[in-house]
Specification:
Elements (H helix, E strand, L loop, with lengths): L1 E8 L6 E3 L4 E10 L2 E2 L3 E5 L5 E10 L4 E10 L5 E10 L4 E10 L7 E10 L5 E10 L5 E9 L3 H9 L4 H14 L6 H8 L6
Parallel strand pairs: 1-3, 2-5, 3-6, 4-7, 5-7, 6-8, 7-9, 8-10, 9-11, 10-12
Helix pairs in contact: 1-2
Length: 198
């Protein structure tokens, strides 16, 4: 299967991402600050394809971030993956809606949505709503959302090794976000011309 990787700042990411037969397409995105992005459509209208959307978002101060994804399996025998991570601090507000829709006749579709949030301020607000609409029986579809904060034992350990609390928090936040890019994190950061994700 041919592999295609595309990397964008969120505001430049196309709002319609289409699968291609015999192709594994990965779209990476990154954003820091406020943004209201029109719904990102992942369209699977061919067999033997894999379409992925992976992104990291940072919101601070009074940033407002509104984002939605809509994965639509028109035909079957294909797969989609959406994984989005956020670090929320200050009085930021993050609102996310993620839909997976599998049409009737799109059997053997395989779709997954994961949205993870690291909320590091008591004043930050996280609203994350995953949704499923399944019209065919022979499919796999699932979603997950996590919301958490810093692990005090990790902070303690890093401070015991001579790091300041802020440095420890920065390292944990960076690692949390970098995980969404996995083995391509250096390529993503180089393409976006950034030295740090936080």
């Amino acid at each position: 299967m041919k592999k295609i990787i595309e990397i964008y700042k969120l505001e430049e990411l196309p709002v319609k991402l289409e699968a291609e037969e015999e192709t594994h397409k990965i779209y990476y995105f990154y954003h820091k600050g406020s943004v209201e992005k029109p719904s990102i459509q992942l369209i699977l209208n061919c067999k033997n394809s894999l379409l992925e959307l992976k992104g990291a978002l940072i919101a601070d101060s009074r940033d407002k971030v509104t984002l939605s994804t809509n994965t639509i399996h028109i035909t079957g025998e294909n797969a989609a993956r959406v994984h989005i991570k956020t670090v929320l601090s200050g009085k930021s507000i993050f609102s996310f809606t993620g839909m997976i829709r599998i049409n009737k006749g799109a059997s053997l579709s395989d779709s997954f949505l994961q949205q993870d949030n690291l909320v590091v301020s008591p004043d930050a607000i996280c609203n994350s709503t995953p949704q499923l609409e399944i019209e065919d029986d022979n499919v796999k579809a699932s979603h997950g959302v996590t919301v958490g904060s810093f692990d005090s034992s990790q902070i303690f350990y890093m401070k015991s090794r001579g790091l300041s609390e802020q440095t420890a928090r920065d390292i944990i936040s960076e690692s949390f976000l970098a995980d969404v890019y996995k083995e391509n994190s250096k390529s993503v950061m180089s393409k976006l011309n950034i030295k740090s994700l936080i």
